[in-house]
Write a structure and sequence with these properties.
This protein is an alpha/beta fold. Strands 1, 2, 3, 4, 5, 8, 9, 10, 11 and 12 form a ten-stranded mixed sheet that branches. It is globular. The protein has one domain: Glycoside hydrolase/deacetylase (TIM Barrel). It is 33% helix and 17% strand. It is built from twelve helices and twelve strands. Strand 2, helix 3 and strand 3 form a beta-alpha-beta unit.
């Protein structure tokens, strides 16, 4: 399947460029030390596993078209990963038929498509009067009725929700803060702790035990150990100049068997890439 046939036609503002050489070198580095798999395979046995996920947060380069280009690069290299689509941005809202079509194309390439939860932001900013569970169920029904199989959820690290002292994970019963003093049944009248993920047969990425979790959030590499569940998660930065050495160290460590890497298409497209302190062609 060619990149052109995967992407189809798109508007000028969506004609983003993700450098296949730069992103390919990143995939090569990870593949030297770990077997890359989509997140849904987190419970399958194996040694040196990297669960590779992408939170598709925004429109334009960070949205659907960036995801499609990353998916095409991975597909060419025989790699399968996971793409979580967020429900309150332009690429998702404005052309839902196209969203379904492209999501199914990602699945045909062997990738997993999941749901990226930013429901508390929607409720707290007054864009919906519905409960979190109503929104959650409605969006799942929309995706699955279009033939997009959903097996898991990732939750957006919304600064807006954090301004109210909560995280999007807190709509799920399984994801309540570790400190009982931080727990609540509602925030500003919006109910929390109402959705049982097991009722839907879904995983949530923050519930997956790992040796290490690595993210490019904000354009900087961050990492944390996640051998036990703690909410909220606290990350620390990795110097981008040390990233390759860091990956090699994890690959050589016999006590490190499973990691998760989160990337965002918006960090990797050319118009913004040089602004971020990442390896593989980023700014010096």
């Amino acid at each position: 399947m060619s990149e052109k046939s995967i992407l189809g036609s798109y508007h000028k503002e969506e004609s983003v460029q993700i450098d296949p050489e730069v992103y390919g070198r990143f995939l090569d580095l990870v593949s030297r030390h770990f077997t890359i798999k989509p997140v849904r395979e987190y419970a399958e046995p194996g040694d040196k596993i990297c669960l590779l996920r992408h939170d598709v947060d925004a429109g334009g380069g960070g949205g659907l078209w960036g995801a499609m280009k990353m998916g095409a690069i991975e597909h060419k290299q025989g790699i399968r990963s996971t793409y979580y689509m967020v429900h309150n941005v332009r690429y998702y809202r404005d052309n839902r038929i196209r969203l379904i079509s492209k999501s199914r194309q990602l699945q045909r390439m062997g990738h997993e498509v999941g749901f990226h939860n930013d429901i508390l932001s929607v409720c707290l900013n007054g864009k919906s009067s519905h409960t979190p569970e109503h929104i959650f169920k409605s969006e799942l029904d929309f995706l699955t009725s279009g033939g997009v199989y959903i097996s898991g959820v990732s939750s957006h690290g919304s600064h807006f929700a954090r301004s109210y002292g909560v995280f999007n994970t807190q709509i799920f019963k399984e994801c309540q803060p570790t400190d009982p003093e931080d727990r609540s049944d509602n925030v500003n009248g919006v109910p929390l702790n109402t959705i049982q993920l097991s009722d839907y047969g879904l995983y949530e990425t923050s519930l997956i035990l790992l040796d290490y979790y690595i993210s490019d959030s904000g354009g900087n590499w961050r990492t944390t150990e996640r051998r036990k569940l703690v909410f909220p998660v606290r990350n620390h930065d990795i110097d981008p100049n040390d990233f390759e050495e860091y990956m090699e160290k994890l690959g050589e460590d016999d006590d490190v068997n499973k990691i998760m890497i989160l990337t965002h298409p918006g960090v990797w497209y050319r118009e913004r890439f040089s602004a971020f302190r990442l390896p593989f062609g980023g700014s010096e």
